[in-house]
Amino acid sequence: MVHDDYGRLPWLEPYAEALSSRGFRVVVPDFYGGFCTTDAATAAELRDSLAASVALDLIDGAIARSDGDSSVVGAVGFSLGGVLAMRFAQSGRTAAAVSYYASLPSDEHAVIPCPVLLHWAETDPLEPREQTDAVVARLRADGTTVTEHRYLGTEHGFANPSIRAQLDVRAAALAFARTAVFLEKQLLA
Questions:
Q1: Three-state secondary structure along 87-131?
Q2: What is the pLDDT of residues 117-154, one digit of tens each?
Q3: pLDDT tens-digit profile of 3-37?
Q4: CA 128, CA 122: separation in Å to the nearest integer?
């Protein structure tokens, strides 16, 4: 699991435990060295200070240090983490990728050789509909199996319960259920 711009906030633990209870081994790397925030401006500063190569190395390291077999890997990411999960999936080291309200910029497009599940907010200035439609079209044109869901009445960050103004409990629960079923199908079948 790859955290969003706000860092490794406490809500990630129950999410990871819920996935773990379904048969997954879950690691949640911390890109900010223990620092997290609920302030959007501070989160933006943290995000902007993170080098993608460093984050991808941290993901690799977390997987390598996890107990047990790591031959079948899935990536789940939120916002910044969604971008990183998709970048990691481009490497071919994942069997499935899930991104919450995030996509790859058009100048970073490359083939993702595993199935992808995308969760979109209805209103999202960071991921406008035209951009998300273009991302999905590019992925499908490259042969990537894409499943996407758009959650009505939501905005960017709808699954992060630490940011109450953006949280949509029903959409977050539905997105989690869809994520779990997708990962079970791709990783445990």
A1: HHHHCCCCCEEEEECCCCCHHHCCCCCCCEEEEEEEECCCCCHHH
A2: 999 999 999 999 999 999 999 999 999 999 999 999 99
A3: 999 999 999 999 999 999 999 999 999 999 999 99
A4: 9
Give the tokens for residue 7.
């860092």
* Domains, the chain, ordered by start: 12-188 (3.40.50.1820)
* Whether pTM exceeds 0.70: yes
CB hemisphere CA count around 142 (13 angstroms)? 17
Find the Cα–Cα–Cα–Cα dihedral 103, 104, 105, 108, rounded to 10°: -170
Going by C-alpha positions, the residue among 67, 75, 79 that lies closest to residue 94 is 75
Q: Dig out the tokens for 52 from the structure.
A: 């993608």
**Structure tokens that stand for 155 in this block:** 């905005």
Q: What does the alpha-carbon distance between residue 89 and residue 91 come to, in Å, rounded to a whole number?
A: 5
Strands 74-78 and 146-155: unpaired
